[in-house]
Amino acid sequence: MPDPRVPELRTATLLRTATGTLAAAAVPSPRVDAEVLLAHVLGVDRGEVRRRALLDAPVAVVAPDGGTPDAVAVAARFDRLVARRARREPLQHLTGLAPFRHLELAVGPGVFVPRPETEEVAQVAIDAAARTVADRGSAVVVDLCTGSGAIALAVATEVPGAVVHAVELDAAAHGWAARNVEATSEQRGAAVVHLVRGDARTALTELDGTVDVVVSNPPYVPPGAVPHDPEVADHDPAVALYGLGTDGLEVPRGVTAAAARLLRPGGLYVMEHAEVQAEQARATAAGAGLVDATTRADLTGRPRMVVARQASGTVPGRAPGAPRTVTDWDV
User: Fold this and answer.
1) Both 43 and 174 in a single domain?
2) Are residues 305 and 242 in the same domain?
3) Using alpha carbons only, what angle is made at residue 109 by residues 259 and 25, rounded to the nearest 5 degrees?
4) pLDDT (0 to 100) of residue 190
5) Sign of CA dihedral 292, 157, 220, 32
6) Which residue has the higher pLDDT, 285 or 10?
7) Structural contact between residues 324 and 318, judged by C-beta atoms closer than 8 angstroms
8) I want to staple 133 with a disulfide (CB 3.0 to 4.6 A). Which of 49, 75, 86, 161 is the partner?
9) Residues 292, 308: contact at Cβ < 8 Å?
10) Cα separation of 77 and 39, whole Å?
11) 68, 142: one domain
12) Which domain covers residue 56, as residue numbers?
């Protein structure tokens, strides 16, 4: 007797049903998410799922024992994932992976899921590090509040000659970063990032005054500004979101002060912030002794990062405002 579910076990039918379910749940990109989830279940890429959908190909995956394709089991697993996504669990938690530039990072509960908007922050750091490598043969880069390790790994893998250090305090996030650093290092055959568990405000004192680029995507959401998307409000860890203080900038101020301590004269600082914090972020950079603070836009055109430099005459490693003597300078 024919299986009564056979008509539902075609790729196009599964995607159409899943897309409707996700759209009804107000998921922002229902078709894309359905394709990503089906690709995850099938063990293929999204392009292959789209090809099968265009052909209305049957869902067929060889069973683990090498027997007949178990399409029913595949459909059941897919349905469960779609139901979880409809409850607004992050897509990246369901697949266990988050794309960031050319990387695929392991993510899950306990770590902030890297966003496409942050790729432009990484680009500023990458460009600065690449220029330094071209000029000097190497570059020292520090990523403060690294989370999953996204920015640090992007710089390390895209800029040959960059020595990258990353700092993360939270135990859960540090665990995810360590996993990603280890996986990327294994792929490359060498350690790509020096990962430290510590407070971004006080870590890496041994590098004071020697760092070419400091980059950070710290927590910066003000305490009263609860994110609207359930994926963020309910699943991103609060420690990665809220920057403390009435304006959400207490942590960013500490990170900026650390950047001023770490940077060599002329070194570059780039930090992500909320679009309503642009003026305050520039003032924070200036207050830490950095110069030429400007605001740059993210991929969506919103003002989302501050870029500044350590003054060329700054004493390496000296806190802003500390007294100088002639012995402090290279003569």
Assistant:
1) no
2) yes
3) 115
4) 77
5) positive
6) 285
7) yes
8) 161
9) yes
10) 12
11) no
12) 6-87
CA distance 184 to 189: 8
148/31 same-domain check: no
Whether the CB-CB separation of 143 and 172 falls below 8 Å is answered with no
In a domain, residue 105? The reply is no
236 in the same domain as 197: yes
Which residue is listed with tokens 């940077």?
Answer: 263
Per the rule left: phi > 0, alpha: psi between -120 and 50, beta: everything else, 242 is beta
Total tally of structural domains belonging to the chain: 2
End-to-end CA distance of the chain: 91
Percent of the chain as helix, strand, coil, to the nearest 5: 45, 20, 35
pLDDT beyond 50 at 1: no
Tell how far CA 288 is from the center of its chain. 25
- H/E element holding 312? none
Q: Considering the domain boundaries, does residue 92 fall inside one? A: no
Least-confidence region, from 61-70, 151-160, 276-285, 317-326 = 317-326
Bigger pLDDT: 232 vs 46: 46
Residue 31 inside a domain? The answer is yes
Q: How confident is the model at residue 249 (pLDDT cuts 50, 70, 90)?
A: confident
C-alpha of 204 from chain center: 21
Of 280, 276, 289, the closest CA to residue 252 belongs to 280
**Tell me, what's the pLDDT at 232?**
67
**Does residue 113 lie in a domain region?**
no
d(C-alpha 210, C-alpha 322), whole Å: 18
Longest dimension (CA), the chain: 93
180, 108 contact by CB (below 8 A): no
* Pair 144, 276 in one domain: yes
49 and 151 part of one domain: no
pLDDT score at 323: 37
C-alpha–C-alpha distance, residues 258 and 206, integer Å: 12
When pLDDT is cut at 50, 70 and 90, the band that residue 275 belongs to is confident
Mean pLDDT of the chain: 85
